[in-house]
Design brief:
By secondary structure, the protein is α+β, with helices and mostly antiparallel strands. The protein has one domain: Ubiquitin-like (UB roll), CATH 3.10.20. 36% of the residues lie in helices and 27% in strands. It has a four-stranded mixed sheet with strand order 2-1-4-3.
Length: 98
């Protein structure tokens, strides 16, 4: 690889969002579905709460099937999230049945 190709590759990589780590906690009922009470995820910087929720429901389709809207509660860093809250490195999401 030439030095010019390396520079192009570095510039290309700079355009990608940086990875961040978040933690997702599930209550005892949801743990029966996810088989874990804590999940650590590496996601792209700039991801919103609603996008992450979509990914979780895609990974665990039994959750939205068993618990229709209004049956799940969510906290983002101990506060109710807004749909378009942008997740930050170290954020914690808590899912629970209400």
């Amino acid at each position: 690889m030439t030095s010019q190709q390396k520079i192009r590759e570095i510039k290309f990589m700079e355009d990608f969002p940086k990875p961040i780590k978040i933690k997702i906690f599930y209550d005892e009922e949801l743990k029966k579905i996810t088989e874990k009470n804590l999940e650590e995820a590496v996601v792209s910087q700039g991801i919103t709460f609603i996008d992450q929720l979509y990914f979780i429901f895609s990974s665990h389709p039994e959750i939205p099937k068993k618990y229709p809207p209004g049956k799940l509660g969510f906290l983002l860093n101990n506060k109710p999230p807004k749909e378009f809250d942008v997740l930050q490195d170290g954020d914690e999401i808590v899912f629970k049945i209400i």
